[in-house]
Amino acid sequence: MAVIALASTASTGVTSSALALTLASPRPSLLAECDPKGGTLRAGFLRGQITAGFGLYHLAAAERVSPDAMANAFASHLWPLDEGGHRKLMPGLTDPAQAASLGRTWSALSDVLHVLAQEAGHDVYVDAGRLSFTSGQLHETLTPAPLIYQADLVVLVVRNTEPSLALTRHVIDPLRAELDERGNGSSALALLVIERETSRGGHGYTTHQIADALKTPVLGALPWDAPVAGYFTEGGTPPRGYARSDLLRYARTAAEHLAVVAQRRRVQQQFPAPAANPQLAGLLQRLNPQRGAARG
């Protein structure tokens, strides 16, 4: 299907949104937690089930050995999010200091993610965290820039409030320029709105108003659901009936729409299929639901 990178300009719910999309997707799905500032799902949603010896950081050393080692490491460090292994997670960094070692790993990881999307039919979501720019360009250490450049869609998560719009407005133009110069084109840029009531009791800006204000299409909207979002990022006891929550119900609709738009854009732009790679072919054989279920 597609590789969709989610990012923001502030702490607006990128991780909880990405996890909701992954869990709600009607197809096999994968969430790569690639925020260089560190991941929260290991200690939150997974409630400490896995140690620091597992996850994204270990791909860097494997990538320096060979593409085969990288592919094997990727498969070995995925964690199942459901009993059938249809939804998987690449857990993120445990220490922001680890991000510096991933500079040359992002591109190799992007290749793997695109093979999963195009050849294995996965919905792939990248939690790219908060965007950081330097001299008008994406910071190469503080952002997973190659993942953003090569994504089928780059989705900015924004709340329906004036402060969130004000912060997002400042990055729209430089991000468009970056995508045109280094990525898959500025038409890849879109918005996902987190709808919440304002402090004054109102309902904030509508999606139409946000699209007009930021001159960027809104491809989905999720309700503000503090209990479920908190469970995703902070752990604890699952809210009662969270699997049937409005957040996951709306996330399923958003996942469907994002996939349709990404696929249509891929056809219109005539993006090439992933290059044949024996190592990645072997990777696909390892990433089957039975393996994920056995580990769960």
Describe what this molecule looks like in 3D:
With 296 residues, the chain is an alpha/beta fold. The chain has a single domain (3-295), classed as Rossmann fold (3-Layer(aba) Sandwich). It has helices at 14-24, 58-65, 67-76, 105-118, 145-150, 162-182, 207-214, 226-234, 246-269, 278-286, 289-295, and strands at 3-8, 29-33, 79-80, 87-90, 123-130, 133-134, 137-138, 153-159, 189-195, 218-223. The strands form two sheets. The protein has an eight-stranded mixed β-sheet with strand order 3-4-2-5-1-8-9-10, sandwiched between helices. Helix 7 (207-214) links the parallel strand 9 (189-195) and strand 10 (218-223). Helix 1 (14-24) packs across helix 9 (246-269). It is globular. The two termini are 25 Å apart. 47% of the residues are buried.
Query: Might you state the CATH topology name?
Result: Rossmann fold
The CATH architecture is: 3-Layer(aba) Sandwich
At the first level of CATH, what is the class? Alpha Beta
What is the molecular shape?
globular
Summed up, the domain count is: 1
Task: State mean pLDDT (0 to 100 scale).
Answer: 89
Q: What distance separates the N and C termini?
A: 25 Å
Could you give the count of β-strands? 10
Query: Roughly how many Å is the radius of gyration?
Result: 18 Å
**Overall helicity:** 40-55%
Largest sheet: 8 strands, mixed
Question: Secondary-structure element sequence?
Answer: EHEHHEEHEEEHEHEHEHHHH
Uncertain regions spanning at least 5 consecutive residues:
289-296
Helix and strand composition category: alpha/beta
Strand order of the largest sheet: 3-4-2-5-1-8-9-10
Strand content: 15-25%
Helix tally? 11
Superfamily (CATH H level) name: P-loop containing nucleotide triphosphate hydrolases
